[in-house]
Description:
There is one protein chain. The protein has 14 helices and 19 strands. Strands 16-15-14-13-7-12-11-10-17 form a nine-stranded mixed β-sheet, with helices on both faces. A six-stranded parallel β-sheet has the order 3-2-1-4-5-6, sandwiched between helices. Strands 8-9 form a two-stranded antiparallel sheet. A hairpin with a 2-residue loop joins strand 13 (256-265) and strand 14 (268-272). It is an alpha/beta fold and 384 residues long. The chain starts with 6 loop residues before the first strand and ends in a 13-residue tail after the last helix. It is globular. It has helices at residues 17-26, 43-46, 48-53, 61-67, 79-91, 106-119, 128-131, 133-143, 163-167, 186-190, 192-201, 301-312, 320-334, 362-371, and strands spanning 7-11, 32-37, 57-58, 72-75, 95-98, 123-125, 150-159, 176-177, 180-181, 212-221, 231-238, 243-249, 256-265, 268-272, 279-283, 288-290, 338-340, 346-350, 355-359. The mean pLDDT is 96. GO terms for molecular function: nucleotide binding.
Amino acid sequence: MSKTRPRVVLVGAGGYGRLYVEALTSQDMGAELTAICDIDPNLAERVPQIRQRQIPVYPTLDAFFAKDSADLAVLVSPVHFHTDMVLSCLEHGVNVLCEKPLCLTVKEAAAMQEASKKTGKFLCIGYQLNYRRDVQALKRDILLGRFGKAKHIAVYHGFRRGAAYYARNNWAGRITCQGREVFDSPFTNACAHHFQMLTFLLGPTMRTACDIESVQAELYRANPTIENYDIAALRFQTAQGLPLLYYTAHPIRTEFWGPVGVLEFENATITYTREKPVFRGVMADGSAFDYSGVAPGADMQKLMDAIQAVDSGDPPLCGVEADLPHIHAVRLVQQNPITPVRSELVQPVHTDTDDFYCVKNLEQMLVHCAENRALPSELGIQLG
């Protein structure tokens, strides 16, 4: 007798959610996409896979639960809807894979974590780097003490974002939306992955991330059409006293900037970039190593792991406890003032596909900061 395949409901099939539709309908993921929740009444007409497979589309999650259920809910909705949706799914006995960011307060995260324990259903978060097998292998080596204690970390990473990105919804680049906090920024959302991965790598167990104690932040806004900051230079202090510097930005000339990171330990220095192998290291004795022998996994490894966890009962490694430090860090950062970038440094750029703002030589300035373990003002760089 064959085992019943897990049933998946996808909440939010536009934008990034389209990748989940593609993954669940174009390849065998070991599960069935049996329902979609989306506010677009014409979704089935616009997405051929939904129409061809006659997948029912519900306007809300409540409407779905009134008629059906699932084994796994994949939430690709705006952050200010996550808490209510996660709690509803767990209370209906449905496991959850929620896209990042999970939420914006530790209180909300704790409520979701408690609901997961109470219902016996898992909640995992879509920080895809946590699901990479080379990241997990590196973390195991760190926990085993192969490199000694971490001494210093500096990372920079950015995506260029223009008018199309900010016009795609009513919360992009906003601090609040309809009276609810969203804190949308490169650090909170688009470029959050690599900071969260760093805290995950330094966590005391395979399921936890390192706590953040404080931050020195320089926040800038170059794009005059948005409310929140789009440039951040951040120096965090972990609970272990480790300085962790992170630089991220949207108003850059290059489409992709980084990630480039240097992780210094007592007995090794590890670098990572977009190039393969992602992680390369040199031990104190000069011997080199990398993680090229570890296959990173599939592009949608997070979805595959969540589906497998439905049957195994063993939750994926990226649960609430792995996201708490980033949630805390987002709020710490947001409490700092935002300085407009000097107008003479900001260049409007028009292309055939988009319009965006870039700050002259911003990438070079922030790389200089990373190499010197400094914030811009400490090096005499006056952006505002």
